[in-house]
Design a protein that fits this description.
This protein is an alpha+beta fold and 122 residues long. It has 2 domains: 5-51, no CATH class; 65-120, no CATH class. 21% of the residues lie in helices and 25% in strands. It has 2 helices and 8 strands, in the order E-H-E-E-E-E-E-H-E-E. The chain has helices spanning 23-41, 95-101; strands at residues 5-9, 46-51, 67-70, 77-78, 81-85, 90-91, 107-110, 119-120. Strands 1-2 form a two-stranded antiparallel ribbon. A two-stranded antiparallel ribbon has the order 3-7. Strands 4-5 form a two-stranded antiparallel ribbon. Strand 4 (77-78) and strand 5 (81-85) form a beta hairpin. The longest helix has 19 residues, at 23-41.
């Protein structure tokens, strides 16, 4: 199960600039040092990690959990597998696993907006 977390870091670096440099010029000079600190020593700058209660997992479209179901006809029979049927709430987490179970099926992608209480087969 996935959840959203908030991660806070605090970065501080020293730069040498002209005394009348603008904030933008100072930030531009500091940027590469911040990137280096993030890439090489991020753990040293960790302030905290907390659960994201304001925007939990699934709030944003790119985070939405997707799952798969074979195309089914009106009677619940799997298209391409006329001897097999499933309930409308039965889904697979992995398209690959679905295709292993039903190689001739047409996988359809769903989210919890489509099927509120899915039962996972795999």
């Amino acid at each position: 199960m996935k959840i959203s977390k908030l991660v806070a870091v605090s970065l501080l670096t020293r730069v040498v600039v002209d005394e009348n440099s603008t904030d933008e010029e100072i930030m531009e000079k500091a940027k590469s040092k911040f990137v280096e600190k993030i890439n090489s020593e991020i753990g040293e700058h960790l302030e905290y990690i907390v659960d994201d209660e304001e925007c939990p997992y699934g709030t944003f479209n790119e985070e939405v959990e997707v799952f798969y179901q074979p195309e089914i006809d009106e009677e619940g029979m799997i298209v391409g597998h006329p001897e097999d049927s499933i309930f409308s709430f039965e889904v697979w987490r992995s398209k690959e696993n679905l295709l292993k179970d039903f190689p001739e099926c047409n996988p359809i992608e769903y989210t919890r907006d489509d099927i509120e209480e899915p039962t996972f087969i795999d």
